[in-house]
Amino acid sequence: MLDVSKLERRWLKYKIKSMLPYAGFLTVIIILGFTIPLLLSTSTSSHSSIKKENVKKLKAPLPPLSKNDENSMILEPSMQFLQSMNVPSPSLEKESISSIPVSTVPSKISISQPKIETAVPPPIVKPIQTPVQKGNLTSIKRDDTTFDIHELEERFKNNSNPNLGLYIARYHYDHGNYTESYNYALKTNAINSTIEESWLIFTKSLVKLGKEDQAKKTLQLYISNSNSQNAKNYLDTLGKESHK
Amino acid sequence: MEYSLFSKPRDLFIDIVNPKDYVQIDSVSHMYQSLKTSVQKPLKMILLYGRPGTGKSMLLHKLHHDLSKHQKVCMIDIPVIDEDDFLRVLAHKIYSYASRESLSLTNFLELSAAVNYPVIPIVLLDEAQLYSSSLMEKIRLISDARALKFVITLHKTDNEDIIAKEHFQTRIWESIELQNASYEELKIYIQKKLLKANCFDVANMINDKNIKLINKLTRGNYRDSNKLMFALFSLYAWYEEHNPSKIKYNALNKKWIEMAAIHTGLIRA
Ligand SMILES: Nc1ncnc2c1ncn2[C@@H]1O[C@H](COP(=O)(O)OP(=O)(O)OP(=O)(O)O)[C@@H](O)[C@H]1O
Ligand SMILES: [Mg+2]
User: Could you give the number of structural domains in chain A?
Assistant: First the structure.
């Protein structure tokens, strides 16, 4: 069947091969970077100012090369940000199952649910990265016609599978429906209060809905129960933004 | 093999055509709708063409599945290339007429007039690039006589443009071209397949960057994507058994996607 170790070796070969052109380019630049100053330092000191400029110019082509990856990342919807934060460690989650006083967390938060639904009109979300948001909008339209999220919601009603709840919450957050992502993250947390990503979507939705204080409180509560590093990081970024 | 979280998603991507596994994708369902209306038009012959693995057979089987509830439909998915055999097989399948000898075209048309279905039966021919020109001409005559309606599928390859062939140039053909999936469509295809089978946890693992990479590797070809996903989840199942600590559940492993692509030949290494 699968010869995984052989496959790993082939993969390594492939990676090295695909890196070769970049590596070649880099070595050329490094070599030039060393030799040009050497060559120039033998000439008169009046040239030294030119020398510096030369080196700078030589280095200039580097950034576009390494940017390749970043360019493709710009197109990612905002969920990416969350995913990059989310590094669940299964062992940690298991520990927290036993340590969390499950009843306190969801119940405290669910009190606020009606408030949001009445007080918050359809959320007006300020696009943070305008060009990206625009690009997303068109794809959202297509998504809605093809992807029957309502069918999934219907199934969630019947099976209460927290993984499905998380999926739906994520979907809505991706599509900018923050009231919905809030609701589904909330439901998911009520079923299983140990899913870090669900808590993050929940609090991020709160922030998007303009309830930053509540988001912070929730995060602190969650952190005290789970010790989640990602939640701490997010709380930190929230703190910084509000000080500005 | 032992039970594994990944064996079910893996088996979802086995490359078989079963109309029950049909996934609704925007552009495909548009085509499917227009296909369904075209089938009701008199005298037209319908040609489904596209590159290998773009879902022609799938669409044809879906059509068979849906139409056979209402009318006489006959699917010939393994081509009957022998000309004499062809009419005999059709006569048997549609008119339940068993005969050892081969039928002439005239005999066949007489038979069809004698049986006289209220709605013209539909014949679905997969892989029609394998039929000879003279057989295609016979098929056209049968269609002209309003004895049967035909929907056929054709491979489109680089070295031979079959559509350009004479017998498909006439105006009786209504042709529909199937294409590879776009990024959005591939995303929907993969996610829907997983969700349909209740593989929510695995569906949660797949992020947009993963899909982008898969789309880049397979160029949105459904068959290639199936093969890649099958190999990928086989890898996951392997690691789950032998080295579970390596599995991260928050995203698909880019390296493993590339390894699967090497295994299936999408990456040459
Ligand atoms: N809409 C769809 N829903 C579910 N599966 C699909 C869909 N379209 C294609 N597939 C899958 O993709 C694979 C390739 O599709 P298919 O066999 O229909 O291609 P094809 O165009 O007939 O190729 P070929 O020209 O080689 O015969 C199949 O395994 C099929 O199950
Ligand atoms: Mg086919």
Answer: 2
Per-residue pLDDT of B194-208, as tens digits, reads 999 999 999 999 999
Which residues contact residue B18 at a Cβ distance below 8 angstroms, ignoring those fewer than 6 apart?
B61
Rounded Cα gap, residues B183 and A115, in angstroms: 39
Nearest atom in ligand 1 to the alpha carbon of residue B222 is: 12
Within A43-123, where are the H helices? 48-59, 62-74, 79-85, 90-99, 104-110, 113-119
Predicted local distance difference test score (pLDDT) of residue A116? 39
Which of B14, B17, B125, B179, when mutated, tests ligand 1's pocket best, judged by the most ligand atoms within 8 Å of its CB?
A: B17
Task: Name the token pair of A152.
Answer: 């999934």
Give the pLDDT of residue B236: 96
Residue B259: in which H helix or E strand, if any?
helix B254-264
CB–CB of B209 and A80 under 8 A?
yes
Q: How far apart are the two ends of chain A, measured CA to CA in Å?
A: 58
Query: Chain-centre distance of CA B254, in angstroms?
Result: 29
Q: Which residues of B touch A73 (CB under 8 A)?
A: 209
Residues A14, B248: C-beta atoms closer than 8 Å: no
Dihedral, A217, A218, A220, A221 alpha carbons, nearest 10: 120
Residue B124 DSSP symbol? E
Query: Does domain B26-178 match CATH 2.60.130.10?
Result: no
| Residue-level pLDDT at B169 | 67
Domain membership of residue A75 (yes or no) is no
Q: What pLDDT, on a 0 to 100 scale, did the predictor assign at position B10?
A: 95
pLDDT at B164: 61
3-state DSSP call for residue B45?
A: strand
Banded pLDDT at B43 (limits 50, 70, 90): confident
Q: What region does A93 belong to: left with phi over 0, alpha with psi -120 to 50, or beta? A: alpha
Q: Is A161 exposed, middle or buried (0-12, 13-18, 19+ CB in 10 A)?
A: middle
**Residue B213, pLDDT above cutoff 60:** yes
Write down the pTM of the prediction. 0.70
Which amino acid makes up residue B83?
A: E
Question: Has residue A221 been placed in a domain?
Answer: yes
Range of the domain at A29: 11-39
Q: Which atom of ligand 1 has the smallest separation from the CA of B156?
A: 25
A220 within a domain of the structure (yes/no): yes
Rounded to 5°, angle at Cα B8 from B194 and B242: 120
Q: What is the mean pLDDT of chain B?
A: 89
ipTM of the complex: 0.79
Q: Check A143 against B184: CB less than 8 A apart.
A: yes
Confidence of residue B33 (pLDDT cuts 50, 70, 90): confident
Please list the ranges in chain A whose pLDDT falls under 50: 46-145, 244
Find the CATH number of the domain harbouring A230: 1.25.40.10
Which candidate in A6, A7, A12, A172 is best for mutational testing of the B interface (most B CBs within 10 A)? A7
